[in-house]
Amino acid sequence: MKTLSSYVGDQWVEGSGAQQMLLNPATEEPLACARSEGVDLAAALDHARRAGGPALRALSFAERGALLGAMAQAMQAHRDELLELAIANCGNTRSDGKFDVEGAIATLSAFAEIGTSVGTAQFLVDGEGMQLGRSPRFHGQHVAVPRTGVAVHINAFNFPAWGFAEKAAAALLAGMPVLSKPATSSAMLAHRIMEILVERRILPGGALSLLVGSPRELPSLLGGQDVLAFTGSGDTGARIRALPNVVRESVHINVEADSLNAAVLGPDVEPRSDLYELFLKDVQRDMTQKAGQKCTAIRRVIVPAVVAAGVREDLVELLGGVRVGNPAMDEVRMGPLATASQLADAREGVERLAADGELAFGSAAPFAAAGVPAGKGYFISPVLVEFAQGAAADVVHAREVFGPVASLLPYSGEAGDAAAIVARGNGGLVTAVYSDDAGWIREAVFGIAPHCGRIYLGNAKIELSPGPGTVLPQLVHGGPGRAGGGEELGGVRALAFYLQRVALEGSRPVIQKLLGTRTG
Q1: Which of 183, 194, 262, 517 could form a disulfide with 300 if both were Cys (CB 3.0 to 4.6 A apart)?
Q2: Can you list the positions of beta strands (E) in 43-106?
Q3: Active site residue 295
């Protein structure tokens, strides 16, 4: 059985203390162990600040982008190996593994291109300069420069490759060294990626570190020049924000947390139409892809009451065709949940939903999955719970069940009614809207927009759309309220979290010479 070591201070360090076991979630077979006691976290952060930070800041955006491109190429060369780890340790089908691993590669490549487009600068000029007084020589200009601390990334269990890449790409391109902490249960994939990058010696010393096992006191060691990006539960995010050093030092924190994402069907969409079929396909895929363990998965299916019964029947048919079992089998379309605790939490959540609504498909009961011994694995069937129009359904809007579980909610057909139902979730990452009625779309979008980080406009004429559940590096990822109130990605916007904006005030020629801009 493999023991996962941490990579800190430019060397592999095996921790001590109690072991945390990593299992195959389909068979419960032990695969590896990890432990972080004995790893000097303060020294690891100090090395990143002293060695990795200056080395990255000495490079231009284009040069940092080239490093990201080399990281993507290294991962691509080991793609098949990484997919096998995703199947074994993450419970992914091969398709789900591709979603994670290829998403990571694509994100690194996208930020490599951003580095090329920004060019040879080492800082960003933020907007146009401005005359500050009656004299044109009294000038002001905002610029953004890399922070001199370290970027700590605490990632969730569901995307060990993509989560690692999307955070690291932005930080490294901005010029900040990274210490990445993957969730322990699925850390084998992130650990192998780190091994590959170290073997190829792609990055400067201290630029990228990896901590496996418990994070211990890591967040409490951060200071005012450091940043922390966290993906996980809202409760944990709140505890991090309340740490004395975070409050005292005003440590920059970005949180991506719970999200009750929605798919809204417009009243103009006819059953059996192309847009209706797209809606059904997106809901079914986002319920079952990665066994519903996506922060962007559809949790609330909001449909006009007049078609609710038909939508229910069509979704039940689609869900009934999803074979659940050992993801190593080619015919399996949905694997297990990641851990025993995730399974217990999902079952309890389904029972709470079913107490207020009616099970239309699936249940919280133990599930006989294909290709695994009886009683083994963390499996649950897809679950669709139906609610009556106007039902309070408080639990639907108060708790995210992190699994292949969605609730069917009828509404009047009015855009304002749909937006009000979405808003009851108290902030989300993404809402998908399906309609061809321009007026209805406008009212729905601007009613939903304050409560959501991204709105996906479903259209049957778009070719090769990945659907609402796919996070694209060009667009911001995050959401208000329950979703954490943060932002990641968004192209160049992603760099802002890792940069300090500073206002320059003084003589126009002096400022423009300093920035290398024209003085004419």
Answers
A1: 262
A2: none
A3: yes
Distance CA 468, CA 454 (A): 9
Amino acid 520: pLDDT? 36
256 is catalytic: yes
Is the confidence at residue 1, as pLDDT, over 80? no
Which residues are CB-contacts of 126 (< 8 A; sequence separation ≥ 6)? Answer: 141, 142, 143, 144, 501
Q: How far apart are CA 341 and CA 7, in angstroms?
A: 28
Report domain extents, the chain.
20-257+486-515, 262-473
Choosing from 90, 295, 400, 452, which is the catalytic residue? 295
Q: 65 in helix, strand or coil? A: helix
* pLDDT computed for residue 518 by the predictor: 46
**Cβ neighbours of residue 31 closer than 8 Å, sequence gap 6 or more:** 1, 2, 22, 23, 24, 88, 89, 188
- Determine contact, residues 444/418, Cβ cutoff 8 Å: yes
Measure CA 11 to chain center: 28
- Fold held by 262-473: Aldehyde Dehydrogenase; Chain A, domain 2 (3.40.309)
d(CA 195, CA 2): 13
Greatest CA span in the chain, whole angstroms?
81
pLDDT band for position 492 (50/70/90)? Answer: very high
Phi and psi at 428, nearest 5°, equal -145, 170
Question: Over 90: is that where the pLDDT of 329 sits?
Answer: yes
State how far the alpha carbon of 37 is from the alpha carbons of 20, 182, 291, in Å: 11, 16, 32
Beta strands in 237-343 (DSSP E): 252-256, 262-265, 300-304
3-state helix, strand, coil in the chain (%, to 5): 40, 20, 35
Q: What six digits make up the tokens of 457?
A: 């406009």
Amino acid identity for residue 281 in this structure = K
Strand, coil or helix: what is 360?
strand
247 CB-near residues (< 8 Å, 6+ apart): none
Nearest residue to 357 via CA among 401, 394, 304, 314: 394
User: Residue 260, SS3?
Assistant: coil
Distance, in Å, from the CA atom of 338 to the CA atom of 184, rounded to the nearest integer, reads: 11
Strands 499-507 and 151-154: unpaired
d(CA 35, CA 215): 10
- The Cα-based distances of 278 to 178, 401, 408, 462 in angstroms read 40, 24, 17, 10
Q: What is the mean pLDDT of residues 127-142?
A: 91
pLDDT score at 24: 95
Coil, strand, or helix at residue 331? coil
What's the CATH fold of domain 20-257+486-515? Aldehyde Dehydrogenase; Chain A, domain 1 (3.40.605)
Please name the residue that has the structure tokens 């009015």. 414
In this prediction, residue 517 carries a pLDDT of 63
Bin 484: left if φ > 0, else alpha if -120 < ψ < 50, else beta: left
477 close to 456: Cβ distance less than 8 angstroms: no
Among the listed residues 256, 386, 400, 488, the single catalytic one is: 256
Query: What are the tokens at 517?
Result: 């801009």
